[in-house]
Amino acid sequence: MKSYCHIFAVAAVSLASASFSLSAIAQTVIPQAPEVAAKGHILIDFDTGKVLSEHNADMSLAPASLTKMMTSYVIGTELKNGNITNEDMVTISENAWAKNFPGSSLMFIEVGTKVSVADLNKGIIIQSGNDACVALAEHIAGSESAFVDLMNAHAQRLGMTNSRFGNSHGLPSAENYSTPRDMAILSAALIRDVPDEYAIYAEKEFTYNNIKQYNRNSLLWDRSLEVDGIKTGHTSEAGFSLITSATRDGMRLVSVVMGTNSERARQAENKKLLTYGFRFFETFSPYQAGEKFAEQRIWQGEKENIQLGILQSAQVTIPRGQRKNLQADFTLNQQLLAPITKGQQVGTIYLKLNGEDIATYPLVALEDVAQGGFFSRMIDYIKMQFN
Predict the structure, then answer these.
(1) Cα dist. 11→135, 286, 294, 372 in Å?
(2) 111 pLDDT higher than 70
(3) Active-site annotation holds for 168
(4) Is 128 assigned a catalytic role?
(5) Which of 125, 193, 220, 221 is spaced 20 to 30 Å from 289 by Cα?
């Protein structure tokens, strides 16, 4: 049987009975997400994965240079694991020669020269250099095709089930496809798994071979938003795409917009989504790890009550103005019988808003409770027969 309590109150109810009445829930008006002029889009909260807006989020689309985010993820992982270093010098092969990619975005590396991994990495992230992608792919895996195998393996591991990569740079290929939802998964992985790699996405310019190029993510210059990434993409087939991430008051959003009709449009649609997300939603932790959530009767123990809570801080994303209406609903999955050890799961906490479950967390013991003495156990055994 479930027992209810206000989210900031301590629950003290038995497994078998009792509930508190829920207060009337005030309604807060949240406008519909804005219309987005793109083939597909998705807006998510980074910490909780909550989807705040989406349209055609699972549509298969050409990622164009968004492909370089997966290339970058592999590079960041290899650096993190120590398989390569930023100081490694890479000899540029004819395959990676800038002249092989006329009319496309380039770092302008020249065959036979030696370029550091650090510079090539910036050439990929800041300058969107197709040539730099091939150079680092060959350095890491021996050939671009072998590197693409790594890209696809990481994509599957991350759960990008509707994505496939056919090259390291994103120039048109029948084997290059993804979805806004999958690209949001990749964006979150970049931020979470390889933070040193992700930090480069905030850099606004990079000069190589006496050629200064500016980051194509124009929202990095927008003072109304704290944008620190991520990547643009464009081909005639894919249209103009842009993925952005920004933070405000401890909340991070990821906005994926794929297939707009211009550079200006991809910027405007991303800004529209980020502004909507920050204005009408908030992410916070109603509980902290180790904080007492409930105190329950424990039988045959050295003490009568045990403190229960959660092991990890619980973050939720909800409409602004709704904190006071957040409720906690928890169940015990067992009768609390000593001995119980600290960290042992004894139930589940359900966070509810407007009567709907929005998150679940394991309810665990926050302390050890050993068995009581023989006589106290016998007394509790008799009491349990009448409960």
Answers:
(1) 59, 15, 4, 24
(2) yes
(3) no
(4) yes
(5) 193
